[in-house]
Sequence to fold (113 residues):
Amino acid sequence: SEAGVTIPLVQAVFDLIDWLDTKPTFKDEHIARKLVKARTELDATLAKEFAEPSEEEKEAASPSPAEEAKRAAKRKAEEEKLAGMTTEQQRKYEEKERKKAFRKAQGKMVFKQ
Fold:
């Protein structure tokens, strides 16, 4: 008696499952393609970001010997200039340089709105 009621219901459920299985699943394939594409793009981006820099990039990043010599000469001239000043003059000079560096840093900041 109960089996007579449940058998047609179970049969209808199986028929529905079979019918759904025969329908094309464009959405699933489309989503799968998008996921694969997004993963490959992300992998490529991460690989590029974390890859070892090439020899050309290393050379471009490191300053040339002429630039290093120029910086060293500038640093040495600054030290000699400070050595010839009194402590009060040194304090004023360093304060002025600190303010100049602060203004320069403020000018480089970009605010997003």
